[in-house]
Specification:
One of its GO terms (molecular function) is exopolyphosphatase activity. Helices cover 26% and strands 31% of the residues. The chain has helices at residues 14-23, 72-83, 109-119, 135-154, 219-224, 243-249; strands at residues 2-6, 28-34, 53-56, 65-68, 90-97, 124-129, 162-167, 177-180, 185-198, 201-213, 227-233.
C-alpha cells in the first residue's frame, strides 16, 4: 500500500521517525510533515502566504521525506494535490508526542491532518502516546499501528472515517489489548500568567493542568487501564438528536 505519513510535531520528531522506520518495512511510504512544531493548530490552513516545500533526509529512513512551512492540514493538502502523483491508499498521522484523548481532538493538529485526508476521500489513522514516553514506547506504538492498518484494510475502512488511536506508555507485555471506544471528556484548569512587559505591552503565558474525567468505556479510561484505544471519528459534527427540535425554533 502507498501511505502518506504526517504529524504535527515536525518532520524531525522522534514519533514520526519511529512510525516511518516500522511502516516502510511493509509499505510504500512518503513523509510530508511540518518543518517545525505545529501542535494544537487544529484544522487551520495557510491562506495568506505561499508554502515552502523542501526535500529532507531523515536518519535511518529510506523513504522520501518533505518538510512544509505550514500546518498539518496543509501537509496533507499539498501532498495529495502536488507532491504525490499516484493514488494514496491511506494517511497515517503521528506518532504524536502526547495523548489525543477526549475533547483534545478538537485542538489536535495530528487528528486534523487525518480528518483532512478524509475530506480528500482517503481513509486515515491518527496515533498518539504519552508525551514523556521513552523511545521504546514509540516503537511499540508503531507496531500497533501496523496491526491497526492490517485490520482496517481487511475490513475496508471507509474513506470518510478516521481511526484515532492512543497507546499507553508501557511495555508490550503489559498492554491488555485493544479497546474500541467513544471519546471521553477532558477539562482544563487554564490560566494566563503575566510574565512581564514588552515595550509597554503586557505578556501572558498559558499555564495550568489537564483534568481527566475517568468515565468508564471512554478512551481516557481505557488508556489509563493499560489498553490501546481506537475511536472512529467523522467530520460531520451535526447533533442529530436535536436537529428537528432546533428546526422548530425557526
Amino acid at each position: 500500500m502507498r501511505l502518506l505519513i504526517t504529524n504535527d510535531d515536525g518532520v524531525h520528531a522522534k514519533g514520526i521517525h519511529a512510525l516511518c522506520k516500522e511502516l516502510e518495512k511493509y509499505h510504500d511510504i512518503i513523509i510530508v510533515a511540518p518543518d517545525d512544531q505545529r501542535s494544537a493548530t487544529s484544522h487551520s490552513i495557510t491562506i495568506a502566504k505561499p508554502l515552502i516545500v523542501k526535500e529532507v533526509e531523515l536518519p535511518d529512513i529510506k523513504s522520501k521525506a518533505y518538510s512544509v512551512s505550514g500546518t498539518p492540514a496543509d501537509c496533507v493538502r499539498v501532498a495529495t494535490d502536488q507532491i504525490i502523483k499516484d493514488k494514496v491508499d491511506m494517511v497515517v498521522s503521528g506518532i504524536n508526542i502526547g495523548y489525543n484523548l477526549g475533547t483534545d481532538i478538537l485542538y489536535s493538529g495530528t487528528v486534523s491532518a487525518a480528518v483532512e485526508a478524509t475530506l480528500c476521500s482517503v481513509p486515515a489513522i491518527a496515533v498518539s502516546t504519552e508525551s514523556s514516553a521513552e523511545d521504546y514506547v514509540y516503537e511499540n506504538a508503531a507496531k500497533y499501528i501496523k496491526k491497526v492498518i492490517e485490520v482496517a484494510v481487511s475490513n475496508k475502512l471507509h474513506e470518510d472515517i478516521v481511526l484515532n488511536v492512543n497507546v499507553p506508555p508501557i511495555k508490550d507485555e503489559d498492554i491488555k489489548g485493544i479497546k474500541v471506544c467513544k471519546i471521553g471528556k477532558l477539562q482544563f484548569h487554564h490560566y494566563y500568567k503575566e510574565t512581564g512587559k514588552e515595550q509597554e505591552n503586557l505578556v501572558y503565558k498559558l499555564e495550568g493542568e489537564r483534568v481527566v474525567n475517568h468515565v468508564e468505556e471512554t478512551d481516557s479510561y481505557y488508556v489509563d487501564n493499560g489498553y490501546v484505544t481506537v475511536t472512529p471519528l467523522h467530520y460531520d459534527l451535526t447533533n442529530f438528536n436535536i436537529l428537528k427540535d432546533v428546526g422548530k425554533w425557526f
